[in-house]
Specification:
The chain is α/β, with parallel strands linked by helices. The chain has 3 domains: 110 residues, Tetrapyrrole methylase, N-terminal domain (Cobalt-precorrin-4 Transmethylase, domain 1, 3-Layer(aba) Sandwich), CATH 3.40.1010.10; 117 residues, Methyltransferase, Cobalt-precorrin-4 Transmethylase, Domain 2, CATH 3.30.950.10; 55 residues, no CATH class. It has 13 helices and 10 strands. The strands form 2 sheets. A 5-stranded parallel β-sheet has the order 3-2-4-1-5, sandwiched between helices. The chain has a 5-stranded mixed β-sheet with strand order 6-7-10-8-9, sandwiched between helices. Bound molecules: S-adenosylmethionine. The site of S-adenosylmethionine has 24 residues, from helix 5, strand 7, strand 8 and strand 10.
Length: 292
């Protein structure tokens, strides 16, 4: 019988966040696949866990996934852990899970800390609808495309960023999204945890002033340090709709707008309904304007 693949969350800073179930599973499995075996040894020693470890990281994840799936098929139980938090969230795990499921292996999560979720719930921003963008891609074109998409995102946006790239990213967010409200969640669960509600512009001014500012003391006091999650307010849906309506009204007559939908393959009834919706007017008004 095949073994089980466990995805075990580990603390993101505070060891007290390790769950008893995580400790038990890590003790019971045959092997722990760890992102950084040297880093994880400290965690395992702390909890007196002596299960053998093998490395499973960004650079060997595809070849290693095959090895791990073979071991699972032979009946071994495997646990995946990463440097911190939940495997598969901006960390290795996703490919292994896909491969294991395809091989008919049982995958079981062992929940715990995740920086994104804890930043979101502490941010004061709406939590009902959110999108997680992880780290923005480094590739310039893809990064620009995602920033463009985020411009009209109405859900709360959650992003990861490294401290040495924070100012650049805030600058790009400011250019793309404007001076949106943002919560900077720093060093969550650690001694210097801070949750700061501000705006992208204010955050940028604060950091830039401190980094390039006059006093050396200021520089060391405020330059971004530690781990950050950025939680950004989504656009207001009604305001967005209003702007869309204004843009359409300014650039197209009702006839052009209607024709545009007909050209896209809609019938007259559907096109009239779509024009009325886009312009925030009744179908009767659309009809009358088309008739004049
Ligand atoms: N798998 C992890 C999780 O479940 O959150 C995320 C790993 S990702 C490689 C590392 C990023 O997560 C950091 O750059 C930072 O953006 C965020 N992060 C991790 N720990 C954090 C903490 N204690 N406080 C704030 N952000 C944290």
């Amino acid at each position: 019988m095949a073994g089980t693949l466990y995805l075990v969350a580990t603390p993101i800073g505070n060891l007290e966040d390790m769950t008893p179930r995580a400790v038990r599973i890590l003790n019971e499995v045959d092997v722990i696949a760890a992102e950084d075996t040297r880093g994880s040894i400290r965690l395992l020693n702390h909890f007196d866990i002596h299960t053998p470890m093998t490395s499973y990281h960004e650079y060997n994840k595809l070849s290693k996934a095959h090895v791990l799936v073979d071991r699972l098929l032979q009946g071994e139980n495997v646990a995946v852990i990463t440097d911190a938090g939940t495997p598969g969230i901006s960390d290795p795990g996703e490919d292994l899970v896909r491969m294991a499921l395809a091989a008919g292996i049982t995958v079981s999560p062992v929940p715990g800390a995740c920086a994104a979720v804890n930043a979101l719930v502490s941010s004061g921003k709406p939590t009902r609808r959110f999108c997680f963008e992880a780290f923005l891609p480094m590739e310039r074109k893809e990064r620009a495309e995602i920033l463009k998409e985020l411009k009209t995102e109405t859900r709360t946006i959650v992003l990861y960023e490294a401290p040495h790239r924070l100012i650049r990213t805030l600058g790009e967010l400011y250019t793309a999204l404007g001076d949106r409200e943002i919560t900077l969640c720093r060093e969550l669960t650690k001694k210097h945890e801070t949750i700061e509600e501000t705006t992208i512009g204010m955050a940028l001014r604060k950091f830039e002033a401190k980094v390039s500012g006059e006093g050396a003391e200021e520089v060391s006091a405020e330059a971004p340090r530690g781990e950050y999650v950025l939680v950004i307010a989504g656009r207001d849906r009604r305001e967005l709709q209003r702007e869309k309506q204004e843009a359409i009204t300014e650039t197209m007559t009702v006839e052009e707008h209607f024709q545009n939908y007909l050209d896209q393959g809609m019938d007259r009834k559907e096109a009239m309904k779509a024009v009325a919706r886009d312009r925030g007017i009744s179908k009767r008004d659309v009809y009358q304007q088309l008739m004049t």
